Amino acid sequence: MMKFWLDKGIDGFRMDVINFISKAPGLLDGEMKEGRLYGDGGPYFINGPQIHEYLQEMNKEVLSKYDILTVGEMPGASPEDAVIYTNPINKELNMVFTFEHMDLDSGPKEKWDIRPLNLVKLKEHIEKWQTKLYGNGWNSLYWNNHDQPRIVSRFGDDQKYRIESVKMLATCLHMLQGTPYIYQGEEIGMTNVKFQTIEDYRDIETLNMYNEKHSMGIPDNEIMKAIYAKGRDNARTPMQWSNQLNAGFTHGKSWIKANPRYREINVAQALTDQHSIYYHYQQLIFLRKKLGIITTGDFNLLLTDFRKKSPILKEWEGLKPNE
To answer: Could you list the residue ranges forming a coiled coil in this record (predicted)?
Structure first.
């Protein structure tokens, strides 16, 4: 199958949960934990016993014979795991998608348990992955994808400071070592969407969660608040090409409604503004190609715990600067 598509001329593969393909023998039961409906089978299939054997065989038989890019989506992979998966001497994959930074605003039980982002934890995560893979492997860099809410609504301010927030997050990402991924609409600052009723949502994960929590008697407004923050449909609304009907995406009926903010956030508008988010992304890409230090230099984190060093931020948190 892979050879078929590579011979068609595709440039590589993004491999869904590829580190789950090796299972421990015996069909072992996962351990039950408080708050879970089922046992956790993760220890028996995440980074399983023959995963490296399988990937090396794939590389030998197919991947090594083409000039392509490979990235493995790998929940539960640590930096130490990523070094093995991405070190060229092991002949497996070019890079992996990690998920640690996507869990920093969730509680211990599930992603719908919304918590404020801890900026110190985010900086620690970035430092860990940048330093441990340096010279040993390769990072993939992303804020957004089809399974995650829009980063400006998540880690930034998608209202008054939307443009500034997007440019800041884009600059942070593109100044790191690794390969940046730009997800559709990220380059114009698309935001999360707040549909009025559950009938407007399409994602099966969201619908299942809504039905489960509704049956438990949890108020609709609380459920919808979680969906507005973390629902996958935030990333799946149509691309906002213009301020015309359906964001210029179609003259027909799209499978999911467009985000109403397409009237102000769209490609046509971005192209007319030389200071837009779109052109900022272009400048970042240009700098990465021009300045080798961005992709080859090492990483040193300054002000690891900013709260101990910034009087301004302490005041924002309601603390006195000398506390």
So the answer is: none
Q: How far apart are CA 185 and CA 289, in angstroms?
A: 22
Active site residues: 16, 73
Distance of CA 84 to the CA centre of its chain: 22
Residue 71 DSSP SS3: strand
Amino acid (one-letter) located at 285: I
Question: 145 near 98, Cβ under 8 Å?
Answer: no
Q: What is the helix (H) or strand (E) element at residue 140, kind and residue range?
A: strand 140-141
Averaged pLDDT, 195-221: 97
62-117, pLDDT tens digit by residue? 999 999 999 999 999 999 999 999 999 999 999 999 999 999 999 988 899 999 99
- Structural tokens at position 205: 């994960």
Contact 183, 273 (CB under 8 A): no
pTM recorded for the entire structure: 0.89
- CA torsion angle for 131, 137, 138, 143 (degrees, to 10)? -60
Q: DSSP of 215-241, one letter per residue?
A: HTT--HHHHHHHHHHH-GGGGTSPP--
